[in-house]
Write a structure and sequence with these properties.
DNA damage, mainly alpha, EC 4.2.99.18, metal ion binding, 2 domains, iron
Length: 220
């Protein structure tokens, strides 16, 4: 387990590298956000941001999306993987918002996770970004970074990763750190070609040490 000083170092480093990290899914309101996050499963934010403008222009409200034919929704999002299943889910999500929540996105975890296509990660993102509720959503980047740096165990599942991150970092920092972990994983500690030799946390990284073994590390 990392020492408190090491956790503090990780937090300081991420703040220095990505002080302005933010949710990169383009949205104008909680409804657009929950739909965008639901669509982002197994798809990049860049691709989601390419399809959602047309989707939201055609169906700007839950009522519009709920009454749209599934085939028409599929046509708007067909560039995304699993688009047929996602089209059914976001239509059902919109229907649930109308029938149970008067067209408004729930502001609590139970209500969010009851929506079709919305799991814990999506609920955490919506709570944090839309409603300013501290949460630590774990996506592939957050999981990869937390394990490489030794914050979590390799064998931990996403629920365990989330619990550990919430325990090791202060609650008021969860939401911003979630985005900073994502930026670090997306733009620096990438899955296939991480920037190990330029990483200020290389000495802490289990993966980085393997990748750079026998390599001369440049000194500033």
């Amino acid at each position: 387990m990392l020492r408190v000083a090491e956790i503090d170092r990780i937090e300081r480093t991420l703040e220095e590298m990505f002080p302005d990290a933010f949710c990169e899914l383009i949205h104008q309101n909680p409804f657009e956000l929950v739909v965008a996050v639901a669509l982002s499963a197994q798809a990049t934010d860049v691709l989601v941001n390419q399809v959602t403008p047309g989707l939201f222009a055609a169906y700007p409200t839950p009522s519009d999306l709920a009454t749209a034919p599934v085939a028409a929704i599929e046509e708007k999002i067909k560039r995304l993987g699993l688009y047929r299943n996602k089209a059914k889910n976001i239509k059902a999500l919109a229907e649930r918002l109308i029938t149970l929540h008067e067209g408004e996105v729930p502001t609590d975890r139970v209500g969010l996770e009851a929506l079709p296509g919305v799991g814990r990660k999506t609920a955490n993102v919506v709570l944090s970004v839309a409603f300013d509720v501290p949460a630590f959503a774990v996506d592939t980047h957050v999981e990869r970074v937390s394990k490489r740096l030794g914050i979590c165990r390799w064998k931990d599942n996403v629920t365990q990763v989330e619990a550990t991150l919430m325990k090791r970092f202060k609650r008021e920092r969860w939401s911003k750190l979630h985005h900073q972990f994502i930026f670090f994983g997306r733009y620096h500690c990438k899955a296939q070609r991480p920037n190990c030799l330029e990483c200020p946390l290389l000495d802490m990284c289990r993966e980085g040490k393997k990748r750079t073994k026998g390599t001369t590390i440049p000194v500033d």
